[in-house]
Amino acid sequence: MSFSKVSVHGGHSGSFCGHAVDSLGDVVAEYVAQGFEWVCLTEHMAPLRQSMMPPEEAAAGMNVAEIQARFERYFEEARRLQALYRNDIDILVGFETEGYAGYEADVAALIARHEPDMLVGSVHHLHNLLFDDKLADYQRAVTLSGGIEALYCDYFDVQLELIERFQPAVVGHFDLIRIHDPDYRQRWEVAAVRDRALRNLTRIGELGLILDLNVRALAKGADEPYLSEPLMAFAIETGIAMTTGDDSHGVDSIGKGLDAGVAILEARGGSSDWVRPARGRHVK
Ligand SMILES: [Zn+2]
Ligand SMILES: [Zn+2]
Question: What is the CATH number assigned to the segment(s) 6-267?
Answer without folding.
Answer: 3.20.20.140
